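To fix ideas, we quote verbatim a fold written out as tokens:
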Amino acid sequence: MRSLALVLALVALSASASDAAYEAATTVKDGGTLSGVVRFAGAAPALAPLPISRGQDACGGDRQASEAFQIGPDRGVKGAVVRIEGVTMGKKPAGDVLLDTQQCRFVSHVSALAVGERARVKNSDGLVHNVLGSVDGATVFNVALPHRDQHVDITRRLRQPGIVRVLCEAHPHMFAWLVVHDSPYVAVTDERGAFRISDVPPGTYSVTLWHEGFRPRGPDRDGRPHYDVARTLTKQVTIAPRGAATIEFELK
């Protein structure tokens, strides 16, 4: 009995520690901001359009541009994810991610959220989609969306930080990413490659850039587009009380 009680106590302690990994505060005292840009150096890769094997009328044609690499003005990279690591207490999560299907494309191609923030998948097309999310090959969610405007809440299925690859089992060309962070201090770069994260507690942090990878390697065995490994870069930044720090990353 004593051994059982000890095991139960350790399990409870472990669960409590996990739950306390990030604590939301009512206010962030002397919070600062982190902003910056992600740019590409060198010759930008040319990605071939993705062939659409079924539902071409509803999908808007027989090919679709790949979103694995998107470069904008001044060589800014859209769709990179910037995470501030190691924040254990700070602002309340307030995100609401909607992963929509529009003409057989996931919108947005890359989304980021904190554990516990609301997340939904939606079907805006007039055909069947089956949305599968996985982390390192392990299924996180598998949602059938047979009807137009149908949506399903997947918030409770995103309980752990990780990089979730999203596919449509009915349409091999469709893919997207959900980056689940352990705090709300995460952002996706816009069309200019820019990002901004507010209400950051003062301190020195590691800041990580993640990009899905963009060198084409042809279709995989299931006919899905395949690119090289994801890119990660890390820099250190200090955010002073009520300060504004900037950082720049370069992909190549």
Q: What stands out?
A: Confidence is low (pLDDT under 50) at residues 1-19.
